[in-house]
Fold this protein.
Amino acid sequence: MNRLSTRNRMLVGLTLFSMFFGAGNLIFPPYLGAMAGTKTPLAMLGFAITAIGFPILGVIAVAHAGSLDELAGRVHPVFAKVFTLLIYLSIGPCLAIPRTASTSFEMAVTPFLSGDTSKTMIQLIYSILFFAMAFCVSLSPEKLTHLLGRFTSPCLLILIGIMFVGCLLAPPAGYGESYGLYAQSPVLQGFLGGYQTMDAIAALNFGIIIAMNINNRGVTERSAVVKEITYAGWIAGLIFLVVYGAIAHVGAIAGGAYGELADGTAALTAITRDLFGNAGIVLLGLIFLLACLNTCIGLISCCSEYFSQILPRFSQRQWAFFFAFVSMVISNAGLSAILAVSVPVLGMIYPPALVLILLSFWDGARKRKLVYPLAIAFTSVTSIIVVLATGGFMTIPGLTSFLMDSIPAIVRELLWVGPALVGILLGWFLSPAPTAEAA
């Protein structure tokens, strides 16, 4: 068999969507809608490019390369090992996995705790149950489609649909006015907001699990697997577009009804409570719980599978238990401290990850052997300097004050683009011309 049935193809696409769609994906679109107001469609256009386009391209890039190691190996073998390790750790046990439990607890449990309840003890019990469930499911990463594609993803989409339909049938207001930079340049603000989701990093990890699920359904030929992963990416992207649009609409209604809001969580909480009363808080809690659990399962599966391959002394089951246990401890005791380290690391590795993804779609980059190394080197050095100089880690005379005082914070995150282009051009012109065979 060299292709999936239409039904299985949809299930794999749903599985990929659910692995991506976590708490962060729930929070930003409603905030975008609340801030953009009547300009929400324009803001969504920019948001879709970076929040949907980059992750889907990342999945396809790794599929075509064969693995993240092989893709990053186009720069240098040592870079491939270090870069891949940093990515798996930063979006795994050092950041994203613990955050799934802490965020879902705040949204699904905290609203129902009374003042005299021991929140610390309740959170410990919750996190043990949460990670025990995620661990059990992640023991069969090749079968995630059975749970995520068939059950939890459809349930999540139904719950989001209920919230959206509620806004359609009984909206408390129309779209509100645009605020701040969303009023001046909604497309650019949406683009930058989508960039900040950093889902492209997760995309580099998820390919391995999606490939296993496709193999488990009888498709084993490499070219056919690559094609099916590509289909899954486009299906997930289409679902993302619909869901993001629905949640942004909810946020825009919330902005019109309640004015400028602090964040996406405030927008969703206000409007679900208005539409459904206390049942709305239950609805929102279930949405966050399912979204976070899906992402947690996907991340534990990816990380444990990868580490069982590079350190086969320990099985995938042992690695899954280790990551679940460590994440449980961090989610209760040290999340703020680990965020202080992991977020800057993400800021450093995200730009080279994007450059790596984009270069993979340009065949000419592989034919000029210095394009990958110089583009990644220029990008990495720039992103490291910007993060260190603006994150309080070090003061660079002249540069730190210039970056902090003269450049808007959201623009600083894109300062790597110029150096990346310089690296690509230098790599192209300094590389020996490809031979007729290489060409």
Summary: The radius of gyration is 22 Å.
